[in-house]
Predict the 3D structure of the following.
Amino acid sequence: MKKEKIVTKPNAKNMVENVLEQFNSAADQANLNENVRKILSITNNEIIVHFPVKMDNGKVEIFSGYRVQHNNALGPYKGGLRYHSTVDIDAARALAMWMTWKTSLAGLPYGGAKGGIQLDPSLYSDGELERITRRFTYALGENIGPDYDIPAPDVNTNAQTMAWMADTYMSTKSPSERSLNQHVVTGKPIESGGLEGRTQATGYGVYFLIKMWADENGISLKGKKYTVQGFGNVGYWASYFLAKDGAKLIGVQDATCSIYNEKGIDVEKLFAYASANKGSIEGYRKATEIDKLAFFGIDCDILIPAALGNQITEKNAHEIKAKLVAEGANGPTNVEGEKILLANGVSILPDILCNSGGVIASYFEWLQNRNGEIWQLDDVFVKLDKKLAESYRKVKDYAKAEGIDFRTAAYCIAIKRIEKAYIQRGIFP
Ligand code: NAD
């Protein structure tokens, strides 16, 4: 296990610098205890594993996997695993910190972690991905666990990935203890202990919070134009629920291309097309392909970044015409980008609030497994709505009372909850 202080690169402003800047400005605003500030500025544990996997052609490839555990003052570490070429220790650190703020804000008994493997999954067969996932899980060993650190899906990982992880972890236990460990990961398929509604939960939450914001501002979603960056789990489900409420999807960007149709893009047809096209929207006939750089400038009411971090920056924020940016992704807007948006009167539903539906549903799945229960879909949505509405109101009221933006308010609420836990317990020894 490797522990080191976070050192950021001198020139390139990366995601860690971004999240630390957001944190420090909230810590100033909330007058956070200086010792707690020190603790929360670093990650608790950083695990890097290198492991061999036999490929379909018989050759062995070595992979590097990461798991960063930022803080567990409020409960076990919790956060996704990502399979992407951009995964590295910096990205995992930043994403782990965002998880700590997110679980705290949502009032969950969890801390924050994140990780993944640096790879492009499109280059591997299903069999290879299964062996990579199983060997990674085995290499992580007791660094994860149902009451210690609980991974979940993220970019390019899904319920199938979680089923392989759960099975591998459970297979390392004696038969009599196997079932006690089912909640080592969340986001599993229903038949393998998953929760009804977990797949939809993050995108649904994005929609639900947009709706709360719209209702509060006297805006009807009917006919409102929206664009989505990323048409995976989060982007698709947010689009699905918005379309059901009468809003009109007019632009989509994924890793392969950007498409536009001012008359509207049928969410279900695009989803069916992408599903049959290895997840890609490229070549969809009922929209026009546009230049990648033109995407953020599309004239729309709501923009949903639901792909990677650092997408809205000082380079493109001034082009954004949307009145609301709803952050489905983690860290899609950097500090400079946010300043421009706010100066232009654009409202932002910050990531730690906006995409928290996913981790809230993961918590429900964890409870379901721990208690040997099976929850019904209707109950899941009722409970999810309640938690999301609570978080929204807390953030809105705090922002109003202090005269600050939503992100700073959300951070203040999150870090003050952790501060209380540290003050109550003190520092061991
Ligand atoms: P996913 O793998 O299902 O989909 C990712 C989408 O992003 C794909 O459409 C992909 O083509 C697109 N994409 C990748 N690189 C891109 C690029 N450079 N430009 C434009 N599009 C690009 O992943 P997901 O689970 O939907 O996660 C998306 C975001 O939401 C991530 O930031 C993730 O951390 C965040 N998030 C996910 C969950 C969850 O429950 N899955 C929960 C909270 C937050």
Notes: Residues 1-12 have pLDDT under 50 and may be disordered. Residues 222 and 245 are 6 Å apart (CA to CA). The longest strand covers residues 60-71. The chain is about 40% helix and 15% strand.
